[in-house]
Amino acid sequence: MKEVTAARTADAERLRNYLRDESSTFYGHADELFLPANQAELADVVRAANESHMLLTVSGGGTSITGSRVPTNGGAVVSVERMTSTGREPPTGFKEVHGAGFDILLNAADKTAIVPPAITLSALDEILARSGLLYPPDPTEMSATMGGTVATNASGARSFHYGPTRAWIRRLRVVLPTGEMAELHRGEPAAKKGTVHFTAAGRTVGVPLPPSGEYDMPRTKNAAGLYLAPGMEPIDLFIGCEGLLGVVSEVQVDLVERPDQTLTVVAYFGSCDDAFGFVDAAVSDSLKLAEVPHFLSLEYFDRRSLDFMREAHPHIPKKNVAAAVLFEVPYSEFERHNPYPDTCMLSEVEEALAKHRVVSNWAVPGARREEVRLFRHSLPEAVNDFVRRRSGKIGSDMAVPHEQFRQMMRAYEGESAACGVRFLMFGHIGDDHIHLNYLPENDEEAERAKMAYSRLAKTAVGLGGTISAEHGVGKKCILGENGRLIPYLQVLYGVRGLRAIARVKKALDPNGILNVGNMVPPEMLT
Ligand SMILES: Cc1cc2nc3c(=O)[nH]c(=O)nc-3n(C[C@H](O)[C@H](O)[C@H](O)COP(=O)(O)OP(=O)(O)OC[C@H]3O[C@@H](n4cnc5c(N)ncnc54)[C@H](O)[C@@H]3O)c2cc1C
């Protein structure tokens, strides 16, 4: 590839880190690593790769669990890790704020910030906390970067209340696969007559959308596939595109005042039905917490998850516990209702818990929220650690419409019991989005778990749900009808849907260089 201004290295030791991700399932190979320090250098690298038809895979924090940042098809890697500042003067109303090794531009009055792609969620949170502000999407893994979370439309526990990353992006700067820069604003003219338009480097780019019936996105929380819908805004093409359509070089996010004062409760139930009943009441707001904003989060742990966590968290009760629900309620409202927040529970919540036969609960005031956050995060981390030492991760990310949730849970239990592989379930029950994780001890068990997983993905789609509500699909494959591997996304959209994605990809990346292998197989792009 021709000379570029960005730092580059072909040192094998240096490259090794970028050839895998947290899935411990995908391994890649690459000839070179590019480390641009600013937006101009990044554009230069992408332009040069495009001119020499060189495959380029974008790397953020490397926390993906789908292989999406792994260069399985070779070529080069471009990491945005040195892009720790926006590198530009603050626009009117913004001021530069430093912290945790990053610079952001903050407009506290307008509750918005312009941030570089490399900033981690934990660093951003640390900086914003000083101004009493919050960037609401909270994917569990706080070492993920802003660029990576935009590319995967990440979400987390509080997305129950706040929605996913997509809802919080006001403006994006993106380097297209041609090396041209595009700036996309929320609220720009929507797609017309089947084409979505935007401007890049002074020219108008038109991207054809699939005809009706060819690509119907599920009506659940969803992170699988491109966002393609009639009347869509151009910015939505790039959020959740898994780096297929461009490299995020700058992000302007919306912020809210920090509800630092929250009450977090882990409620233990004697039966799953009791736990589900409490969640139904919370989701439908039949608790009538008239003055209390909705629950910020509603998370679920099955009995097996609690057993798995007990060694590290001995305070988890042992007897008569079948499931737990973790939830957060804004504390200021709580205080208004109750003068003794450390010892008592919001009375309406307490009544609802009692009605659903809660066994016991662990209530933590806002100042100690981090304890519960770490408690919640320790589970996926421990699961990832466990499977890393054995047969690799087989964990689901499916969500279904609320009315189908219990049927999906029965399918998880039934398929998993039948395949005889140890498993556990936890996750975002408020969004009808549970992670089923298999813990196979050997390759033979892993094969059985993969078959069960494959049947469950089809069940979720049959119930109107999605195969991935937050992680994306990356390079994941699944066993098809004939026992052969097919792209995971094919289960949701069929071959016609994959072709629709490939058409959009070709419109923006005619040489097929960027993040090839994500969502659709490389051969569909030629
Ligand atoms: C323990 C654990 C818990 C997790 N919990 C959650 C969760 O609750 N919710 C959730 O959504 N995810 C979760 N994840 C998955 C992961 O953290 C997210 O997918 C995250 O958004 C990835 O961000 P990253 O910066 O690590 O990106 P990477 O892993 O580096 O890359 C992910 C994808 O984004 C692309 N990308 C990265 N940077 C850019 C950029 N600047 N421009 C364009 N494309 C880019 C990559 O090419 C790749 O396709 C979890 C992971 C772990 C290990």
How is this structure best described in words?
- The protein is of the alpha+beta class.
- It folds into 4 domains: 7-81 and 509-525, Uridine Diphospho-n-acetylenolpyruvylglucosamine Reductase, domain 2; 95-257, 2-Layer Sandwich (Uridine Diphospho-n-acetylenolpyruvylglucosamine Reductase, domain 3), CATH 3.30.465; 262-376, Alpha-Beta Plaits; 390-472, 2-Layer Sandwich (Alpha-Beta Plaits), CATH 3.30.70.
- The chain is built from 14 helices and 23 strands.
- The strands form 6 sheets. It has a 7-stranded antiparallel β-sheet with strand order 18-15-17-16-20-21-19, with helices on both faces. A 6-stranded antiparallel β-sheet has the order 5-6-7-13-9-10.
- Strand 11 (195-200) and strand 12 (203-208) form a beta hairpin.
- Helix 12 (405-419) packs antiparallel against helix 13.
- Residues 336-344 have low confidence and may be disordered.
- It binds flavin-adenine dinucleotide.
- The site of flavin-adenine dinucleotide has 38 residues, from strand 3, helix 4, strand 13 and helix 11.
